[in-house]
């Protein structure tokens, strides 16, 4: 392996979604943070694409992986390059609201810029990432960001503490397009503007209090498609270590913010014992980790 890097899991701390535009895409406003866990992406001299890890089989036999599409898009932007060997160690569940595909693409773009064109600007790399999906640019750097527009208009996130957290997925894949369609069918649209946001949150407790005034507008439609999400949220809400719990993105992964390392560890251990069928990961949110 010549180089490898983390493709961190993305968490939408809040996700406000408006009525769809004529092209079907939705205006949104979301505060995205990244976990110190995720997939691993590598570049090698031996040609070809190798897919491994616990969730690799979930992507076998699909069309072109986002890692390959990212490599080809950057090669095209640079006027043509031979794509080297690429490795994806898929550790995050697929179609889970963790932005895994976008983060994998971002990791590949960072590695290949280093190899091919270290002078290419961050802005140009963001444009390539954005061409791969609405979350592409936001998931490029693995650092907290406020995303607006379709998700491609980025601005600095407020100052955030590092958050000890637990991620829980009930083992059900949820399709992002299906969740947006169910959101449209319900026809309940609100303003996407968040309540006034301080320049910085000094503690996770302060952040949790502020987040309670915000929403994930995709939670109700995702719950309708995957009722298992309700079980996860109910369990998390009932645990003493949970300061704040919510679903991320289009689901089905939910996150619980905890007061510290010990609380997150305790919560994760209890959930693992209680529900061995769930994917449970203790992590830290914030970043940049990549
Ligand atoms: C749910 C989120 O992950 C929240 O961060 C994103 O909004 C989705 O981002 P993404 O998966 O990168 O999105 P894309 O791959 O571009 O599109 C997937 C599907 O989501 C819908 N989509 C996506 C973003 C957006 N602002 N409005 C949408 O309606 C698109 O119609 C498409 O059917
Ligand atoms: N490297 C990849 N990792 C995950 N999915 C990929 C990858 N490459 C292509 N895909 C396709 O992208 C779809 C969405 O996967 P992903 O895990 O990124 O969903 P998600 O976490 O719900 O994304 P988001 O939160 O951005 O909507 C998958 O169902 C799969 O068909």
| Mean residue pLDDT | 97
- What are the segments in which pLDDT stays under 50 over at least 5 consecutive residues? none
Biggest pleated sheet: 10 strands, mixed
Q: Which structural class should the secondary elements be placed in?
A: alpha+beta
Give the CA-based shape: globular
Distance between the termini: 18 Å
Q: How large is the radius of gyration?
A: 18 Å
> Could you say which small molecules are bound to this protein?
4-diphosphocytidyl-2-C-methyl-D-erythritol, adenosine-5'-triphosphate
Would you spell out the secondary-structure blueprint of this structure?
Layout: E1 3-17, E2 28-44, E3 49-52, H1 66-77, E4 85-89, H2 100-116, H3 122-130, E5 145-148, E6 153-156, E7 163-169, H4 176-186, H5 204-211, H6 219-225, H7 228-238, E8 244-247, E9 254-258, H8 261-274, E10 279-286
Parallel strand pairs: 3-4
Antiparallel strand pairs: 1-2, 2-4, 2-5, 2-10, 5-6, 7-9, 7-10, 8-9
Helix pairs in contact: 1-2, 4-6
The site of adenosine-5'-triphosphate has 20 residues, from α1 and α2.
Keywords: ATP-binding, Isoprene biosynthesis, Kinase, Nucleotide-binding, Transferase
Protein name: 4-diphosphocytidyl-2-C-methyl-D-erythritol kinase
Catalytic activity: 4-CDP-2-C-methyl-D-erythritol + ATP = 4-CDP-2-C-methyl-D-erythritol 2-phosphate + ADP + H(+)
